[in-house]
Write a structure and sequence with these properties.
G protein-coupled receptor activity, 3-stranded mixed beta sheet, 3 strands, olfactory receptor activity, mainly alpha, 3% strand, G-protein coupled receptor, transmembrane helix, single chain, Rhopdopsin 7-helix transmembrane proteins
Length: 314
């Protein structure tokens, strides 16, 4: 009986194939990828510039929004240029170390965004339920500590994945049917037992994103309870309107992600390219639309954007 003599050799180079089954359409698919990335880069950079340079916007809500915009830039830059290189130049070759670096930034930034959305919900809760104590509770010192905690949590929970992957022997096929690297997607190409990777990935998901969703839901239940106790209808409408942008961004961020996870778990009959496209939508769409949503729905930011783009209008 022949024995497999592959376990002694481990692949150090992988080949990202892009979107499997749609290779002949890569050039067309690259167009929305490029447009989305350009909008995300320009929109979020403009948002960061406006908030940092306009002293009147140095408030908790806008500082958290600045963090979100920064995370959006990192998330899209970690993925889209690699995808465009595959689509345009067939440059899908990637080393193991670079692949692990890419997935580290993708996963940690995704968790950072989830944490920022949670503190933005906390910000809205304080603003509506304790308006007179808003500035004394959310001081610049506390905002700095919250920001540090968010990024330490994201990097701290993802950092062990580097060692969980480095210990594996990759002796299977080194062609990855995706536009980027992802933890379990890469681990599946190992000949070793990856149960530790799977369970740790589950722990990270439950202790970060899932916990954030639960706390955001609780925050908004408390906000709604407080809002409906306000006697004035105009005041109720104004209070709810301050949460509108944040709710839109929450739905935009978690919605595609939840749908992608469900199709990954239960949609075994769904074509592989659908899974890859859904995974890319989770990364492409929120960074592109977040600055647009806040630019349209937030008057202070909208006025500053108009002033920069059309100085003669104001």
């Amino acid at each position: 009986m022949p024995t497999l003599n592959l376990t002694s050799d481990s692949h150090t180079i992988f080949h990202l194939l892009g979107i499997p089954g749609l290779e002949d359409q890569h050039m067309w698919i690259s167009i929305p990828f490029f447009i989305s990335y350009a909008i995300a880069l320009v929109g979020n950079s403009l948002l960061i510039f406006i908030i940092l340079t306009k002293r009147s916007l140095h408030e908790p809500m806008y500082l958290f929004l600045c963090m979100l915009a920064g995370a959006d830039v990192v998330l899209s830059t970690s993925t889209v240029p690699q995808a465009l290189a595959i689509f345009w130049f067939h440059a899908g070759e990637i080393s193991l170390d670079r692949c692990i670096t890419q997935l580290f930034f993708i996963h940690s930034t995704f968790i950072s965004e989830s944490g920022i959305l949670l503190v933005m919900a906390f910000d809205r809760y304080i603003a509506i339920c304790y308006p007179l104590r808003y500035t004394t509770i959310l001081t610049n010192s506390l905002i700095g500590k919250i920001g540090s905690a968010i990024f330490l949590r994201s990097y701290g929970t993802i950092f062990p994945i580097i060692f969980l992957l480095k210990r594996l022997t990759f002796c299977r096929n080194n062609n990855l049917p995706h536009t980027g690297c992802e933890h379990i997607g890469l681990a599946k190409f190992s000949c070793d037992d990856i149960r530790v990777n799977i369970w740790y990935g589950f722990f990270v998901l439950m202790s970060t994103v899932t916990l954030d969703v639960i706390l955001i839901f609780i925050s908004y239940m408390l906000i709604l309870r407080a809002v409906f106790h306000i006697p004035s209808q105009d005041a109720r409408h104004k209070a709810l309107n301050t949460c509108g942008s944040h709710v839109c961004v929450i739905i935009l961020f978690y919605g595609p992600g939840i749908f992608s996870v469900l199709t990954e778990r239960f949609g075994h009959h769904i074509a592989p390219h659908i899974h890859v496209l859904l995974a890319n939508i989770c990364i492409l769409v929120p960074p592109m639309l977040n600055p647009i949503i806040y630019g349209v729905k937030t008057k202070q930011i909208r006025d500053q954007v108009i002033h920069i783009l059309f100085p003669k209008v104001i």
